[in-house]
Amino acid sequence: MAAKSRYFNRDISWLSFNHRVLQEAKDKNTPLYERLKFLAIYSSNLDEYYKVRVADYINKAVTSKSCEEVKQSSKILKEINSIVNGHWLDYSKILKDDILPEMKKHNIHLLHREYPTDPEQIDFLKNFFQTELRPYVQPVILLRGIRNFLRDNRLYLAIKMFRKTKNDESAERRARYAILKIPNEFARFIELPKMGDQYHYMYLDDIIRYNLNDLFPGYDIEGSWCIKLVRDADLGLDNIEANIVDKIRHNLKKRKIGNPAGFHYDRKIPRDLLIFLLDFFEIKPIQLVESSTYQNTHDFFKFPNPYSPKLEWKAPKPIRPHKIEKEHSMFNAIKHNDVILHYPYHSFNYLIEFLYEAAGDPKVEEIRLTQYRVASNSEVVGALIAAARNKKKVTVFVEVQARFDEANNLYFADLMAKAGIEITYSIPGLKVHAKMALVIRRENGIKRRCYAYLSTGNFNENTARLYTDHGYFTCKESVIEDLENLFDYLKDQTKKPNKFNKLLVTRVNFRESIMQFIDQEIEFAKAGKDAYILLKMNGIQNEGLIDKLYEAGQKGVKIDLIVRGICCLVPNQKFSKNIRVVRIVDSFLEHARIWVFGNNGNKIIYLSSADWLNRNINRRIETAFPVENLEAQEELWNILQLQLNDNVKARHIDENLNNLPVINKLKPVRSQMETYKYLYEKNKLNKPLRKK
Q: For the stretch 1-29, what's the b/e string if a residue is b when 16 or more beta carbons lie within 10 angstroms of its beta carbon?
């Protein structure tokens, strides 16, 4: 099929990714509670999408002075909501027809649009409501002229009812409307009294529904339907030139009262009630999102498992490579050779050990590090504070513009500052997304030797157990010099480097270098030599780089793309010859960025913090760093080959953004599990022989 455009819309493309997440919930080969987790991920992803991306379109559609921008934004909003409506239908069908019956096979019953009939369970519902829930439930009858406020992302029941009357029941009665906020002080799923070996659970929403008559004794309740309002999460930081931290602190308080970005409602709600709510809460038609009976289903993350850990997916134990273990020192290991770690298959603790070793080593003079997203109980921050208390000079660049992590980053910045760490904050107009650390050490009191850590992922020990990323340790002088220059620039923007030896850095040599690498492959193809590009990223959007890939494919360069999320490149077209796009969604989130340029058999491999999205290239400080160690290159290459051969969790993206299963008669390859096996077996081969 011929594409309508050379590029997919980035936000329509993202919906294709989220639908792929939903497909995992349908996979019968996936453990039951892992399937529930994917339902939760789908819901959580969608909320953030509406808070950020949809909110931006709504703002343009409502406030733009450009008729064309209003038209385009409205058109995309209509398409987004149509696609999401269809996805919610799929969601409801998967839950009702696939997951709930599977739960029943294991004697787990989630009452879905139904109430219990057992007298003991009914008594429990009434008692639980009266003794536990009742003080937290505050129904509000909606009266015109009296303002009410819907809190961000909170569940409400919208209720339609009629006053009880002793008069002729045939007389037409006027409907009254009310809302009721579902309290979040309780678990979403409440366990009912057990019946034999059968476990029963009920939505908190339905327990309230069951007792509505007690809340409105003077009314006949016709029904109740779930609604929620998702609000714009933008902090309004565009064009801020100074005092960005103060602005963020101030605006964080306003996030919960942002403009409506999506009014999600049960598709079965009566039309008169919906119209009333839209008028009462001043909701515009473009903000409407048809949803299902139960919303905020990210609560499935916490659905009780009476058989735990059965019915759950258990992550394999992280590998501790013998090549590092035998050194008993991260400095010694790095000094002998560059060290690469593949998370979560390898233990993230090596980075923590590296920082603590630096903190306690009297030869270490200084530590520099960037912070984008850290764990809520961060050991990384703990190691840095330990270093400061040991009289090391510690400098941390804190990116406080990391969306939804602003408060956490400010908290840790304050904590580190109190410990004597020098904090440098965000650069107005730019986000620093590069993941890098530098340890400056003097050996034998004279020689200066530095150790660097660069990564595709954050300094976050929690996500390192869930995201696939790569961390790289080196003490090569050329890389160290680049990092020192870059850290100097982060502290003082008047010291912008003109060039870098090894690193590719946005706004300096990033885009130009990529173009040169692609041009080099084009020249190999013209000369009849092997020409190949393999790119793994979370997203590809930039039209200039996409056009260069189109050009390369047309000139005979074979191109493989492994793109988890946004992919604006359109495959299977005349202009996208020789380009294949693969998406992998599995138990670990594929988060790494790896670029391979064939270079006529002498591969050039870069790892990066950056995707090829416009924001990464134009509005962020990102780095890409070469992997020159041959053993590390081989490991990355072999991991990528497993992903390209995945025929279990991989999907091909077609010209309509469909996620098409890989169908072949080859032995099943699930790349994440095979990657663990590969690294585990390789580590066994490196195990030192016991001395007799």
A: eebeeebbbbbebbbbbbbbbbbbbbbee
